[in-house]
Request: fold
Amino acid sequence: MTLRTFARTCAGGALSTAMARLNARHPWSHNDHFHRWILANLPARRRTALDVGCGQGALVESLAPHFGSVLGNDADRTMQRQAADRCAGLANVVIDGSDWSDLDGPFDLVTMIAVLHHLDVDAALAHVREVLAPGGRFLAVGLAPPVSLADHLWDAASIVTNPVIGLAKHPRRDRGGVQPPAYPVQDPTLAYDDLRRRVEVAMPGASMRRRLGFRHTIAWTKPTT
Reply:
């Protein structure tokens, strides 16, 4: 039994409810938290960037000052509208709703935040490899269900630190209560170790690390030769 399952079932779900309320007092976006990591790992050449599953457009907006052009892609129409509204004043940004696998590139940067587990992983990694320009970077932030001992230890650390990080980021208490996600969500099914093996095959030399906030990161630079 995972810690998350235990929290949901313990005392009829009372523990899970109490934790959700605690976290809601000082909310923070686990996905937006990693924008800084992405901005710190941009490629040297910055002509074009693609954010797959751009959601409300926060990362696209952050990338715009660093690239000649930025394409935000999302299959959800509500997300497309919100991202377009957010980036309306940015002349080098386009928000697109077409199938991202039809995009040809080349791109100097491809990003995915909490997106890869929504896709056919092998096909997605292969397409990223194809559309990246030589020297281009793939930066992804993902989720995986806890399976191994290491997974559970990182899960426990994330559970414990979640309210602490929330307090640091949002010290003023929010009285709005538990809010539904602002974007479509889907539970991941592919374990971290299984995903790592697939990444190693598709992108030799990629760096993959577990992170707090129930997330992991993937960074890969396409060889120039």
Observations:
- The CA atoms of residues 71 and 94 lie 5 Å apart.
- The longest strand covers residues 132-142.
